[in-house]
């Protein structure tokens, strides 16, 4: 399927690892000019070179901390300097640790909110005026199913994700008259370094081995397996295209059927 994305410009935050890297590679393979952002400049440059070699597209690395408003502004400006107006924003930078309320300090809450919730808000705020003026834009928020499946052992992440579900739908309503489409994707268990970290943290909280925790997580997925990053990135690429031009204000679960709520 030709998604007709050649020549579009995208910024993917958290683009050096896992799902973010897969999204950046998928978009580049579709002909998109991609800027990837993350904190580790050396790793970011290496990944940009790898994706460029894989896809034949120029991929630009723009190092920045998405908790820092000045860094967000600098990343977006680097994208505009490299390729021109930004057509697509994929908000993906953000991670909250496992933890129950007594074990989660205020600093952890503040960091999670500032990185994922406010990082997404600030990035969207930066790109929206030009998207609305051109009457074309896509904002895809990578959120997570914990936003509507609360768990005591993942309280911070669930609360931030719930806020992002609300933000995504509200922003979609505001931007729809200008043909700027805003959607979310909620990955379930996906095999990444981040997943391995969550399994280790969950095992420590439960007082059991990582293998046991991983098996329990897989058992909760009707398809009976953990997903792969490119099973998320394909959906994101589709949502960026005009094939999805009547989809906005919704969040799509990519979780092997594991989220069972109305």
Helices and strands, with pairings:
Blueprint: E1 9-13, H1 18-29, E2 33-38, H2 41-55, E3 59-63, H3 69-83, E4 88-91, H4 106-134, E5 137-142, H5 155-175, E6 180-187, H6 193-206, H7 210-219, H8 229-240, E7 250-254
Parallel strand pairs: 1-2, 1-4, 2-3, 4-5, 5-6, 6-7
Care to give the gist of this entry?
The chain has helices spanning 18-29, 41-55, 69-83, 106-134, 155-175, 193-206, 210-219, 229-240, and strands spanning 9-13, 33-38, 59-63, 88-91, 137-142, 180-187, 250-254. The chain is of the alpha/beta class and 262 residues long. The mean pLDDT is 93.
Total beta-strand segments: 7
- Biggest sheet statistics: 7 strands, parallel
Overall outline: globular
Percent strand: 5-15%
Please count the helical segments: 8
Widest β-sheet, arrangement of strands: 3-2-1-4-5-6-7
Query: How many domains, as an integer?
Result: 2
Report, as a whole number of angstroms, the end-to-end distance. 31 Å
CATH class of the largest domain: Alpha Beta
**Which second-level CATH architecture of the largest domain applies?**
3-Layer(aba) Sandwich
Mean pLDDT equals 93
**Secondary-structure element string:** EHEHEHEHEHEHHHE
Radius of gyration: 18 Å
At the fourth level of CATH, the homologous superfamily of the largest domain is: NAD(P)-binding Rossmann-like Domain
Helix share, percent: 40-55%
Task: Quote the CATH topology of the largest domain.
Answer: Rossmann fold
- By secondary-structure content and strand pairing, the structural class works out as alpha/beta
Point out poorly predicted stretches.
none
